[in-house]
């Protein structure tokens, strides 16, 4: 089963922007549609949308506050329920692993729902954008790759889908983009099944890890690489719990180059690639690479693989030169959105979250005060401010309103991570062409009105 999905949002910031629309289509293994689901929601009071995003998606500002639409929290609960009902499945989008997936994870987390739905419970994920890029490189004449005015190939969905025969694309609408993505997937599956089947088999972390645990060389497609496809060997120890793998290109003379790894640290760091095993990496076994494009490793590459396989200490030394991944720790006064990676919820708080979604508003207030993790207390109070403010105390309401005022104005800091009203208005100042669009004046007036709702002074 596959779940094709897409989001429309208030902007491109996965931390501070908001999902406004969600669309999804469930298919069987042959990519035949079985069901579909679409939902929109109202704008959260502390979110300032990007005027550019509103204009691109043709979002009517009146619709942002339409009382007939569900709240953000109600929408996210409905999405989780439908996806759990459909799963387990492979989640498929267009540029989804870099954009839609992080948005969806953070939205679930902010709504006090399990954030990693798409990669747990037997679910996996696949991204059509890198898949189509690989298809265009392996077989340039199989599909039509549109080009910009300067002649550079473009893989934008709104250009790629119609160039390959999809003429009913309602671009920048969630369901329209889902339909276009499904169409492209069907094209690849039908006309390039070797590539489709190989990438589907990499959709889970376990399958990618299993391929690399075989100690055999692999081919990998890396968009922007020189060349885009090369033969690699895994040099880290591996292990089922690891999220990443380090791959050394076999076109480099690891065995014969003079000097220790330390002396060649800069070169090594530029050559070795770190891949995320749970992000459907475009790696292929030697058999798959031959079936896809007739690729075979050279004798020299096989000799390099044998050298690395027989030199575990040397490989360990190389791995030590690769800088470890470090997640930035948010400051003490960080907005709650920035703290999603500050640790998982403990078992007690997980149980409270489950109870929270089944409780009455008054019971939700009691649960909100019982969370041991202050992050979830803050998120639960936000939830109530939007959905049931009447149960909150005057002091609790005032705290939320002060926080909203800070978000709309940018706060007392000259630099802030989120988009304030002033930042949104600056989009028009920095882009005169944007300001000429007919709807721009209405958006400007609405932004100023939004700021005044919470007695905010201009930032």
Automatic annotation (TrEMBL):
<dbReference type="GO" id="GO:0008310">
    <property type="term" value="F:single-stranded DNA 3'-5' DNA exonuclease activity"/>
</dbReference>
<dbReference type="InterPro" id="IPR012337">
    <property type="entry name" value="RNaseH-like_sf"/>
</dbReference>
<protein>
    <submittedName>
        <fullName>Putative Exodeoxyribonuclease I</fullName>
        <ecNumber>3.1.11.1</ecNumber>
    </submittedName>
</protein>
<dbReference type="GO" id="GO:0003676">
    <property type="term" value="F:nucleic acid binding"/>
</dbReference>
<dbReference type="InterPro" id="IPR036397">
    <property type="entry name" value="RNaseH_sf"/>
</dbReference>
<dbReference type="Pfam" id="PF00929">
    <property type="entry name" value="RNase_T"/>
</dbReference>
<dbReference type="Pfam" id="PF26016">
    <property type="entry name" value="ExoI_C"/>
</dbReference>
<dbReference type="InterPro" id="IPR058561">
    <property type="entry name" value="Exonuc_1_C"/>
</dbReference>
<keyword id="KW-0378">Hydrolase</keyword>
<dbReference type="GO" id="GO:0005829">
    <property type="term" value="C:cytosol"/>
</dbReference>
<dbReference type="GO" id="GO:0045004">
    <property type="term" value="P:DNA replication proofreading"/>
</dbReference>
<dbReference type="InterPro" id="IPR013520">
    <property type="entry name" value="Ribonucl_H"/>
</dbReference>
<feature type="domain" description="ExoI C-terminal">
    <location>
        <begin position="330"/>
        <end position="455"/>
    </location>
</feature>
